[in-house]
Amino acid sequence: MDTSDTTNPNGTEAKDQSPAERARRLKDEGWDMLRLAYGVHRDFYQDAMRKFREAEAILRAGEDREGLVDVLGGMASALRVTGDRSVMKEAAGYYEEEVEILRGLGRENEALEREVGLLAAYRDLVTLAVEGAVDYLTKGINLGRQRLAQAKALGDKSLTAAYCNNLADLSALLASYDAEMAESHLKTATALYRQAEDLWGDGEAEGQAAARMGLAETYIRLNTNLGAARELLEKVQAFYESAGHRVEYQIAQVKSLMAMLYEASGDPDLARAFREEATAMFRRMGFSS
Asked: How far is C-alpha 98 from the geometric centre of its chain's CA atoms?
């Protein structure tokens, strides 16, 4: 699915561009391909990765560390699309390098923003049960708590919401590793998702949708507020099916959660129907589940 060509959008030959300009163009194209990986078909991540790696090579050859910002984050995001445990540590490493560069440049607030991605990578490592998963879980929760406090101190509502949401994800995962305290961890996740939903509000609908999906899942796992969980998922589905916001992957995720919900509420036929629909959507996009 490689869509690369030899000209930029203005028709200028790529060979006539400076290395920095070419790297910037490749970075932008990489992010475009990455959006297609979630919106159309998973395999677009390969095109994204090729473009990011080419941009990385140009920038490292020119010792342009600052230029690597966004390229490293793109590479990490592309690797996360694979769902392959063998590359998730590499993805986390790219986020870590990006944060290190920003801190070295004195861009502390931007570094704080990028560590949201690092927490998501730690979550992936735990979800995939990579060796040392519990260590990543502990590291992620400790880092998340520190950064959440910093975001609150800055008065940045959006960033605070992002850290609440990521900490909620990690708390929900902790419930799977600590059966004795599972209910407590899920209730902690519930409170954090609610904070994230409120902080993002209607003005940041995509973030709000992420919080609502997480909140619905914790309700289902706690086997409580199932009616509210259904309403939350219906709102999320409506958002991701709306013009300009359609994301097939997220719609499939909603259907998977609907299957969980109806399983929990004692309706196996509806649960099976939603599960089959979600599976079919994931497979059309190149995801196994």
From this structure: 16
Question: Tokens 């409170």 map to which residue?
Answer: 191
Beta strand segments in 32-97, E = none
Q: Which residues, listed in sequence order, are joined to residue 7 by a DSSP beta bridge?
A: 13
Q: Specify whether the CB–CB gap between 79 and 91 falls below 8 A.
A: yes
- Helices 71-82 and 44-61 sit at what angle, rounded to 10 degrees? 150
Contact 26, 52 (CB under 8 A): yes
Which of these, 82, 80, 178, 85, lies nearest to 131 by C-alpha position? 85
Q: How far apart are CA 43 and CA 27, in angstroms?
A: 18
Strand partners, 13: 7
In sequence order, the β-bridge partners of residue 143 are none
C-alpha angle 235-237-239 in degrees, rounded to nearest 5: 70
CA distance 90 to 84: 11
Measured CA to CA, the distance from residue 53 to residue 71 in angstroms comes to 8
**Closest-CA residue to 162 (of 203, 114, 124, 130):** 114
> Tens digits of per-residue pLDDT, 144-182?
999 999 999 999 999 999 999 999 999 999 999 999 999
Residue keyed to tokens 């599976």 = 279
Task: Go through the chain and tell me how many residues it has.
Answer: 289
Asked if 25 and 15 count as a contact pair (C-beta separation under 8 A), the reply is: no
pLDDT tens-digit series, residues 263-283: 999 999 999 999 999 999 999
Q: Quote the pTM value.
A: 0.86
Task: Compute the distance between CA of residue 49 and CA of residue 286 in angstroms, rounded to an integer.
Answer: 16
